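#random but structural
TW: two for the price of one
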Amino acid sequence: MKKIILLLSFLFVSLDVSSNENKKIQYSKPDENTKIQVALLLDTSNSMDGLIEQAKSRLWNIVNTLTTLKYKSKTPTIEISLYEYGNDGLSSEKNYIRQVTPLTTDLDLISEKLFSLRTNGGAEYCGAVIQDATKNLKWAIGNSTMKLVYIAGNEGFNQGPINYKEAINDALKNDIYINTIYCGNQNEGINLLWKDGADVAKGKYFNIDSNQTVQYVATPYDDSINQYNIKINATYIGYGSQGYMKKNNQEVQDKNAESISSANFTERTVSKASAVYTNSEWDLVDKYKDDKTAISKIKKEELPKELANKSTKEIEEFITEKTKEREKLQKEIAELAKKRQEFIDKERDKTAVKDDLGVAISNSIIELGKIKGFTNETKK
């Protein structure tokens, strides 16, 4: 499983995470009718600890790469789902499969659940987990959506009670692209039918070298970007039953990202400056942005203490100021992030890349995006 996570590590390294330098692009509200949905199906059997670590280390890089895609100049809503399979701790009646999260815009939730995954030896049923994700996730309908599945593992692709070809054909009927990542030697993956799975799915087949480790490029901009994190957190105003818990979780996921590396923490801060990092279910600023009548609908007991005794007008004025403050911070972070990515690109050009897997996977997303009418804003 170690190898799988590697996939996620390199999944989007080649794309400019912060190229949304244009304010119109950077802060345009995500379009609910335009979506990119990504389901990550991760093998959590005994040998997959490295995979999980790589997933933790690259989640925010993945998010930032997805933000570079637009559909007819519209910012798509980004939804991610997480599955684990092949774990003995899961129910045999459910084919050792667990939907960890549904497709969600709650990126902090994805981070929280990634950090909670634990490995345990088990049977790895690829056909079964693909079928479950196809049938039980709420996939969008329409030409302005892109639906991707990445399944990673290291055992035979044809194991289990569900025929993988039938499961994949069902996915294709729903316009879901299946991409396979084998953790091991390329030919082994071919012999174990991982490539065949991708071929049937009209997707991409990749193999990961489990001995590879994630390499970060330190930049002169990392510390400056990271210093913005506390400032931008201060613009989030929790409300409702989830307000306190979710705001606290935001800080927990900051610490989780930082525990992996300073560079990963930087990637998360950059994500928090993008339009796809939205928390209207618990944050008043995002809620008010979505619905200008929201304040009058919220009960006083659901407001934070500092706003409980204020009038609707006073609360709206307070939120407006917080909105301006956040947008200013987001713009400054985006400008630094663009310079950071340019520095990283130059450093990578100086070093021969032994494995261009990251470029290949990134390009696969761009290629599929082109088919669906999405454009890569970094190339403009």
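TW: number two ↓
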Amino acid sequence: MARFLIQDAASYRIDEIYQYTLNQWGAAQAEVYIAGLFDAFAKVGTHEILSRPVPAEFGVDGFFFRHEKHFVYWRHLSDGNIGIVTILHERMHQIDWLKGDFGF
């Protein structure tokens, strides 16, 4: 079974999401939201969560799914694992962020 690995941009975004949620709604809600993200990551490898290919116009090779107010972008790694590339809020301009976070 494939493992999921959090890549640098996704790790940074998880920290941002935690801090924002902590400041807005408190520690308990921040913990619940982050735990929900990690549960969703684990479901990618078991196909329990529906992912779609990133649209061709984005110019990146990967997949995405929605988790509440965020889009989680991931890709298959050469070792067979899943790389969680980035997590973007629904209000963020997806194409600009993706090109940077996927390394383009």
